[in-house]
User: Which sequence fits this backbone?
């Protein structure tokens, strides 16, 4: 994927639209209770980037971005 640092809320919103589920923001404390063991992963600000891969391997992404891929609905 060529994009970096997609906020968790944007991913959840795109998934919620396809699953016809409401999506709402919750606070950090509530997230800990809601997500249980998964909470540390949902609360961590850990943007990922493919910049080094692109630079070192001369790779240029040609596929849809994560959000575009989710929005196309192939997974639903």
Assistant:
């Amino acid at each position: 994927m060529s994009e970096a640092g997609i906020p968790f809320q944007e991913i959840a919103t795109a998934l919620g639209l396809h699953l016809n589920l409401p999506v709402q923001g919750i606070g950090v404390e509530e997230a800990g209770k809601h997500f249980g063991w998964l909470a540390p992963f949902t609360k961590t600000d850990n943007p990922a980037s493919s910049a080094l891969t692109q630079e070192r391997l001369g790779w240029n992404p040609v596929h849809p971005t994560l959000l575009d891929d989710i929005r196309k609905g192939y997974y639903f």
